[in-house]
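TL;DR need structure tokens for one chain.
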Amino acid sequence: MLENITDFYETFVFYYASAMIFSYLVLATFSSINLMRYKSYNSDQDDEVLMKSPLTPGISVVAPAYNEEKTIIVNVSSLMTLEYPLFEVIIVNDGSKDKTLEKLISEFDLVEVDFLYIEKIKTKPFKRVFKSTNPKYSILTVVDKENGGTKADASNAGINASVFPYYLSTDVDCVLNRQTLLKMIKPFLNSKKRVVGVGSTLRMLNGCEVKDGVVTRVSPPKRLIPCFQELEYIRAYLLGKMGWSFINSVPNISGGLGLFDKEIAIKAGGYSGDSHAEDMDMATKLARYMMNNNMDYKLVYIPVSCCWTEGPDNIQVLNRQRTRWASGLAQIFRVYRNVLFNRKYKRLGLIAFPYTFIFEFLAPIIEGVGILFFIYLILINKVNWDMAFIILLYSYTFAIFITTLVVIQDHIVFKHYKKVSEVVRLILMGFLEPILYHPLIVFFALKGYFNFYIGKELKWGTMTRKGVSS
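>> reply
TL;DR here they are.
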């Protein structure tokens, strides 16, 4: 009996890993084609036309904030310096318990004003709106509301207060490229199909030089955990999401940076107020709404790095972040279980959702069970060491190969790092990532699933910021 179970386990792991590797290769191919397409139609000349045209659509930049006193001033100042002819910045103070609101009031000369706040999307109670008495900050609006426990609820309040037809969802700990809005609005204007959402590449702010809210020098993080995250982000965006965008099957648009069609977002119901995976929640809602109403649509990713975010730099903060992400993913598959393998939802139900479920949601569970079973086989001296070595070498070698490939492609196309030694250091970190970082991610994912299924309450805003300096 045990021998049959062992044979099944070895065969299953081998074919599961092979299927995952094959999917990565397919996505890498799609991503490369999509990258070349993007480079062919994107130009600085387009930016000049958008800046001068009276027809350029307005954009509302929505950034929820909860206990962000260390970074709020420099990052709000950064948001207000974006290069775009018509935009507003809406900061949603989601019941912060620190001095976030007081600092905003003092720095930007804010006063409470009468404001026509229409609750198009239901949120936790709205309190008041602040505007600046200083004309220099006329584009800034601060919404104060009761804490809703999620970024999703705060984002809905920002959408309710917005006045323009598109809204950019971001975080106040992010530093944006000044041309972010110019780059991200183009897919909406260039596509024959209605584009309902656009995402862009995020990178780690840790290690970068920042001056007056602008990244002036991009460098890989010096600390181990943020450096591993930089590798993770480059793979996820340049390989994964650009590949999904090629076949119009984007499963999620990052909560750190996403531009959306506000009309469709509101009609789709906005963010689910209790969602801890608002990025996948919104993408799923948009796609479902368009398909339920028989309308062609696109969810798009562009490869330009428009956003730098401060990532966890220690295991404790990484634990809180990834546990919450995993709980959010489990929540998504409970809420949208009728989408999975549902032909009615076409690519979403038959490609994007199944892939995410099998290779992202189930992967930590399969790895965790596999590790326990492997330990059991060691204890009873029944390990097939030849097969175990083959599977380990197979997976490890491919992980290094795909990481190296993406890092080199990123450097050739975008040249973010000034020194070749920085690129080499990132590649070398790829040799350590499967050994040091990946087991932590698996453990935190399993912990997140466990917390979700036992009904443990989650809160957003537990990310500890160090802030950035010039």
